[in-house]
Design a protein that fits this description.
heterodimer, A: alpha+beta, six-stranded antiparallel beta sheet, 11 helices, globular, B: alpha+beta, four-stranded mixed beta sheet, about 25% strand, membrane (chain B), autophagy (chain B), isopeptide bond (chain B), Ubiquitin-like protein ATG12 (chain B), cytoplasm (chain B)
């Protein structure tokens, strides 16, 4: 592959092994983006690139593979302080007025301060109180520290990545679908709830066989198409999985640090090699 | 920071070349947050093009707030969702301050954001 060998020669002059693999990998990602979907091999490659960046950024992603096979997934565990307020989820029609904290702005403020995208227990500032016996509180102080586990798998049926996740209280109780909904970003909650199909559904994890929540991949092509087109027009390299994650992550409380996208990349001039005829 | 040639023809009102979206109902911002940055909004695909593309936006304004503004401006209905892309390569987090995005991805004194509407999820 002429393009790759040219690239690798240029890449060797760049400092660091990381740049070399990133460079090669991005070539793969660009070439595979003739459509809005990706092959499993490309998915793997994009995941490895994401993983390398994650390690540099200490963002906590790991690769889990199924024993004895190439198949695997990206995994990340996060502790979040979330306001589990069930009544606020169904309060959109404004029927309940027993709590004064249901204005959209207040929700936004709470959500803004609620995200703790770090696995560092020291950063948890909230006291864990068990006097609720659950989450029946209607007050705005019904905060719980939860452990979220996110998995990125490859969907063969859609030829796209797909996000699985589950959440537990620190006591080990898994969250219900209603509780998970209440932790969805307010920006998306109404729209997701209005969808004719269930967007967040409970599914059996394809590899682990355990119950997870899944963000349905049916819209992936649609929101990936514009950005891939833009990137192609500008000869800009894109990591499909990372870009996909930047869209779906916020829907389920998963923060994708900006640093993933500001990292030094090889100069665009090196990447805009003439395409092979 | 001067206006570029691609500014659209303004309607016959006495409006400045750059406009400001109405302020959101948030708590008082710091003086740094109140500083404004230039944002250029570009439509993708068959998404409606905004008549005014250039906006002066407070640094402290979030992506979500800007997204809501665009949604209202374009009169999108509840079944439509707006996607915003930065640097033609990713979607910014809704909680991200536009000022930070400008610092990282601004060029020629402005932050270019591409937006695209699609049917709601599902």
């Amino acid at each position: 592959m002429t393009q790759v060998s040219t690239g690798s020669e240029a890449a060797l002059h760049l400092s660091g092994n990381w740049c070399y693999w990133l460079f090669l990998g991005l070539i793969v990602c660009i070439e595979s983006h003739s459509t809005e979907i990706i092959q499993e091999e490309t998915f793997h490659h994009c995941c490895q690139l994401l993983l390398q960046q994650s390690e540099q950024l200490r963002d906590g992603w790991s690769w889990e593979s199924v024993q004895g096979s190439q198949v695997g997934y990206l995994k990340k565990t996060v502790l979040r302080s979330v306001d589990i307020n069930l009544s606020s989820v169904w309060d959109q029609v404004g029927s309940s007025s027993d709590s004064g904290s249901h204005s959209v702005c207040h929700q936004q403020q709470q959500e803004k301060s609620a995200l703790v995208a770090s696995y560092d227990a020291d950063s948890i500032k909230e006291d864990i109180t068990d006097d609720d016996g659950g989450f029946c509180a209607v007050s705005k102080d019904s905060r719980k520290v939860l452990q979220y586990e996110y998995h990125i798998l490859y969907s063969c049926s859609y030829s796209t990545p797909v996000l699985y996740f589950r959440a537990f209280t620190l006591e080990g109780r898994s969250l219900s679908l209603e509780e998970v909904w209440s932790s969805v970003h307010p920006n998306f909650r109404i729209r997701l709830q209005n969808s004719p199909l269930n967007t967040i559904t409970q599914q059996e994890h394809p590899l682990l066989g355990q119950p997870f929540f899944m963000l349905h991949p049916c819209k992936t092509e649609e929101f990936m198409r514009p950005v891939l087109q833009l990137a192609q027009d500008q000869n800009r390299p894109v990591n499909y999985v990372l870009t996909w994650l930047s869209v779906v992550g916020p829907l389920v409380g998963l923060d994708v640090p900006l640093m993933y996208f500001t990292r030094l990349l090889p100069s665009p001039a090196l990447l805009s090699n003439p395409k092979p005829n | 920071m001067s206006d570029t040639a691609e500014s659209p023809t303004e309607p016959q009102k006495e409006e400045p070349q750059k406009e400001e979206p109405p302020p959101p109902a948030e708590e008082s911002a710091t003086s740094e947050d109140k500083k404004k940055i230039d944002v250029l909004l570009k439509a993708v695909g068959d998404t409606p093009i905004m008549k005014t593309k250039k906006w002066a936006v407070e640094r402290g304004r979030t992506v979500q707030s800007l997204s809501q503004f665009i949604t209202r401006f374009l009169k999108l209905d509840a079944t439509e969702q707006l996607f915003i892309y930065v640097n033609q390569s990713f979607a910014p987090s809704p909680d991200q301050d536009v000022g930070i995005l400008f610092d990282c991805f601004g060029s020629d004194g402005k932050l270019v954001l591409h937006y695209c509407k699609s049917q709601a999820w599902g």
